[in-house]
Design brief:
Elements (H helix, E strand, L loop, with lengths): L1 H60 L6 H22 L8 H6 L2 E8 L14 E8 L7 H8 L24 E5 L17 E5 L17 E5 L17 E5 L17 E5 L12
Parallel strand pairs: 1-2, 2-3, 3-4, 4-5, 5-6, 6-7
Amino acid sequence: MSREIVLKGSSQRRQNCKERFIMENDNATQEQKDVKKKHLSRKSKLFIVLAVFFLINLIIYKPFLPSPAQKRNQKASEEIILKAIAAQLNKQPENLTSNDFTNMKELRILNATITDLKLLTKLKNLQTLTLGNLRLPEIELTKQEKLLAKLHLLNPSGREFLDLNPLKKLTNLHTLCIVQIKMKNIETLTKIKNLQCLRTCYMEINDFSPLAELINLKELRLLHSGISNLEPISELINLQRLDIIFEHVSDLEPIKELTNLKTINFWSQGISDIEPLKD
């Protein structure tokens, strides 16, 4: 009887050991799975971090790193500006000195293919600038930029306009004449705080509202520039001369309060009522 109980007990112990082994094996397998999952999770996270870093680098930094073509265009632009400065002073470009840049008061850059105006920032005392018929070269995109364009993260057409931002550093500039140049808008010009005379000719400007910020303007001449509403000009209380030639303007009411206006020249088929100007 006791032997039979021992056998049953031994059998029970074997069964218990087997179950413990299976459970421990299952636990070990589960732990291995968990470790493997954590390892894969870490690899996935690392991959995501690297991918995000790559995209940030591609989106933020790469487009601003000049390509070989952009470097060539920048150098060519500097040569054009140097030639214009030298021609103004009856010198050769290689003979220009730092004093020549400092003393330059007036400059004209005409009929050129140019992309970069940064060199103009050296002309600290420039007072009068004329930019006429300046063209941009064909756009050459880098591989990264082509990829960004396909992903709709880059708009190459934005480079079809000449960047006038360097002009805001010309603190002594008071007269600016722009002729036949592709500009995205004239908002950049509002940063030229001391501008007193602005002339635009054969331009395609869609938004003239920034004109209201040029409160120091004394002379404004717009010829074939696309203005149709004079409301922004109503804020230019210091304006003394206004030329609106070949524009689609019909309402002169916005400028009737400009009491400092001494000379007004209009040539627009849409004007039928000049009553606001009689006073």
